[in-house]
Amino acid sequence: MNRSGLLHIASLLTITLTAASGHAMPADLYFSMAVTENSHNHAGSNLLFLKFQEKADPSVIAPSVVISPRVNGNSIKMDGRLDDWDQRWFTTLESRVMNNYPLSEFYDATAVPIQIASAYDQEHIYFAVRFEDANHDASLQRRQWIFDGTQWHNAPHTAVRPEAPAGHVINKDATLAGREDEDQVFFMFPMVDQEGNFRDGGMGCGGYCHPNLVASGDPKTHLIGDETAGMHTSLPGDVADLWHWTSTRSNLGNTLKDGHIVHGEGIFNGRMADDGQSPDLDNDLKAQNKDLPSQPAFISVKDFQAGNYAIPGFKTEILRQDQAMPIPAGMNFAPGVQLPYSIVRPATGSRSDVMVMANYDPGTFMWTLEFKRALNTGDAKDRAFIPGPSPLPPTLPAVLPGNPERGAKLFADLCKSCHGEQGEGKFENGAWIAPPNQRASGSLIAKTTSINRIERLRTIAHEMAPPKRLMSFVPISQQDAEDIASWLQRQSTR
Ligand code: HEC
Predict the structure, then answer these.
(1) How far is CA 241 from the centre of its chain?
(2) Alpha carbon nearest to ligand 1 atom 7, residue
């Protein structure tokens, strides 16, 4: 027998051995992925399909299909570099803006192309993600403390860089609180999905997106967003696994904030932490006791001993819990001293299930991230990637980034009568008649206009805050919703 014949038998043997030793392929699934520039405004795809493969076949890659071929254990080195990934395995997402703060005190998201790949071996699943940072900054300063000589404040937010993709957004001059300075990457994997969001043509994470702006007060006196951040599954029992990587809070611990999302109503935030210790601790007296003022609680032992806090403008970059000490009573800080808001510590338990190695390149403004988790953690709050029945791959075309000209016409015909010329809403006698929707995402519009939501809300009328009136069913497609959103997001909120 010639050499290639031998090789052929050898590869057949490998397959048989693999099957015999019980390492069958995990079931395919629908999932969601989003990238957030500075905390609130995210872009990505609410519905993707993950196709496991015994042998890599990149020909099935589509705007909504990500492949996960089998690799040999240890062939992927966790180092935040993607040179050991086959470049043909990457899917480029038709990324869309998915923010949901309709009067947006935050500046808008920009849909940068996001590339994603996956792989699995006998024990682990891997993901690789890379994207150009929308504001060309690594955003490592969420809520950074700064001392003005008398008091502590949150350092100003990194301004929008004119040359960055976010440089053209319409509300780029909005004043932002420094607490938003953080990039994030979200994955959502369904576990119980009776509502059918994770299926061909379903809404994916869009079915759970932040609802109910009606609960917000007068936009002139109240920041829209404060009371509206609720995010939860729509039916009791539905639950999804949530991977939440954060550039400030979990990055230094090489992990992410592993959690899950459960059912709730109205403004209830159904995002729950998995069991175990979080990789971050807030450096804030108020976080430890809400009767205390909001100010830093800890400093670095090393910088304290070196007398650095007497130097104007001195900055402690990273604060680790085992190298931190409480601020001594009566201590004086020089003006301009900066302290981190997040204290780094080891995550434990199921909170630390996912290992993440991330790398920001200030030359190319690219983030690259590698994720690794056990296929089955054994925790009921984690999605297990195990063999089982697979849903069929998507047949409907992926929802594409919106067409604003088409959206303008749809809005004028179908929405303007209630939501106003530019989606500014109608606020009369202290209540919204129809809320503002200028920064609503396509996902939120699709969810709001869907008959499912109307039917569900009718049965739980108590979820409705004043004005206790429901939007009527507007029969539009998800692509229509995306087109409307892309026009709305170009309208000024001032
Ligand atoms: C007949 C009046 C009316 C029309 C027409 C209408 N809306 Fe609404 N809309 C409302 C009311 C009332 C609410 C608040 C109650 C609710 O959420 O159902 C609302 C809420 C919303 C919300 C916020 C949902 C939330 O959870 O906070 C969005 C987004 C929205 N509408 C988008 C649209 C779009 C896009 C159109 C056109 C395709 C449209 N609406 C047409 C009256 C209307």
Answers:
(1) 12
(2) 471
246 lines ligand 1 (CB under 6 A): no
Q: Please enumerate in sequence order all residues whose Cβ is within 8 A of that of 486, keeping only pairs 6 or more positions apart, or say none.
A: 97, 401, 402, 403, 404, 407, 442
CA distance between the termini of the chain: 78
**Is the distance from the beta carbon of residue 103 to the nearest atom of ligand 1 less than 6 Å?**
no
CB neighbour list of residue 5: distance below 8 Å, 6 or more residues apart: none
What is the tens place of the pLDDT at every residue in 11-54? 443 343 344 345 689 999 999 999 988 766 788 999 999 999 99
State which amino acid sits at residue 365. F
pLDDT band at residue 156 under the 50/70/90 scheme: confident
CA distance 133 to 115: 12
Q: Which of 72-86, 96-110, 213-227, 441-455 has the highest mean pLDDT?
A: 72-86
Distance, CA of 416 to CA of 414 (rounded, Å): 6
Count Cα atoms within 13 angstroms, Cβ side, for 52: 24
**What's the 260 CA to ligand 1 centre distance in angstroms?**
28
Match 């993600």 to its residue by tokens: 129
Any ligand 1 atom below 6 A from CB of 431: no
